[in-house]
Amino acid sequence: MPADFHGKVALITGVGRVGQIGHAVARGLGRAGAKLLLADVNAVGLAERVKEFAAEGIPAKASPGDLTQPEAARAAAAAAQSHFGGLDVVVNVAGGFFSFGPFTEVTPEILDRELAVNFKTAFFTCQAAVPVLLAGKAGGSIVNFASIAAVQSLMHMAAYSAAKSAVAGLTRALAREYRDAGIRVNAVAPATVRTADNVAQMADPKTPLLELEDVVHTVLFLASDEASAITGQIVPITGKAH
Fold first, then answer.
1. Residue 224 gets which letter from DSSP?
2. Are 192 and 241 in contact (CB under 8 A)?
3. Roughly what angle, to the nearest 10 degrees, separates helices 108-115 and 158-177?
């Protein structure tokens, strides 16, 4: 049975660019009935996504800002409250992979960027969203994006693996802290996904990639009432990629 989000409001981060994971997740939630609050540092891209979804009949509003800063995350949560009257679902897709190489070559700047874009965005968005979720009658659901790099040993990805492992730790901690309040918190840990960027960057075009639809289906399941008994879990999504 497809997930049903009619009557629900979803905040999705990392939605500024076409063909990337955040775009696909937002579209999936919108087509399943959710009203969308879209957050990204890319203001132009967000405006385009709002127009795109409006053309499909999907209610969507934008909250542009740098989510590595708590003020932008608070603005996004407040926008969900002001535009749609509350919040039911949060999906933290914002992130990125910036370094590949030996551990000894990871600079402080690289480490700071990996932690900021992959961990701080999720941390600050959750911190801003939880009070809005708690104000609702039915709690809510948060789905964070970890990575297969957080649950498997991968070479030359120390900073990225550490940042995504922090997301996994945050997920478990929040699930325990807000379990009795009715907020479920889970994370997905996908392998490399078939996006335009990833295809362009792959040295070996035969490398197996995870399909976007597989990620979207898993996220929607975890965010939906169908997963009401699931919280604190880090769900690997590997398909045929690993």
1. S
2. yes
3. 30
Q: Among candidates 117, 170, 153, 145, which has minimal Cα distance to 237?
A: 145
d(CA 180, CA 177): 8
- C-alpha distance from residue 162 to each of 100, 114, 152, 235 (Å): 13, 9, 12, 17
Among candidate residues 183, 184, 240, the one with its CA nearest the CA of residue 208? 240
Tell me the pLDDT tens digit for each residue of 53-108: 999 999 999 999 999 999 999 999 999 999 999 999 999 999 998 888 999 999 99
For 14, residues 6+ apart whose C-beta sits below 8 A from its C-beta are 20, 21, 22, 39, 40, 92, 93, 94, 95, 121
Phi, psi of 50 (to 5 degrees): -60, -45
pLDDT in tens, 142-161: 999 999 999 988 889 999 99
Place of tokens 């929607």: 220
Q: How far apart are CA 164 and CA 97, in angstroms?
A: 10
Give kind and range of the element (H or E) at residue 134.
helix 121-135
* 160 among known catalytic residues: yes
Choice among 128, 160, 218, 222 that is catalytic: 160
Q: Which residues contact 161 (CB under 8 A, 6 or more apart)?
A: 147, 149, 150, 154
**Tokens for 84?**
């749609």
